[in-house]
Request: fold
Amino acid sequence: MHPLVLGPDNVPVITDIGEAARDLGMAAFSVLTHSDSREAPALLEAPARALRTTDEKTVSYYGDLVDVGLADLRARQKWRDLMAFVTHFPGRGTLREEAYLEGRAEGQAKMVLRTLDLRSVAVSDEVRARITECADLDVLDTWFNRAFNATEAEDLFVDTDTSATPSSSVNTGK
Reply:
């Protein structure tokens, strides 16, 4: 058995976009191996531009591999700036983003309920369902802030219930 050890001596410096596109794996290793060299800007640019021509799954795989593997914080930030075109970044509405936002909403809903519980505020099944089914982070944030002063769980919904204020444009999180 012979272990393969990658390092500056046996990983090429890939700064050509065409070469990076032909071998994205080696281009990623090139970035990770040489990111602290003076060629770093071109090293980062080549695979980032090459990834623009490939499918979302490949972009996600190599984009994340490089992002996680970069130890140099300046290089990592530059990589993230170059990868801003990737559809899984916020505001693009992809499955990955939706799962991320859903997780954040679930976490925020748990914090609202936990705050009410710690304050011994009774929560009906109907209120619990409304909170846990809400996916609007702004609404959940409002409810979380209100949970600190609420004497009843329904106090969370004051001014966010559109049935009480038909002209309101506030998302109720229903």
Observations:
- Helices lie at 17-22, 24-34, 40-51, 56-69, 73-82, 95-118, 125-133, 137-147.
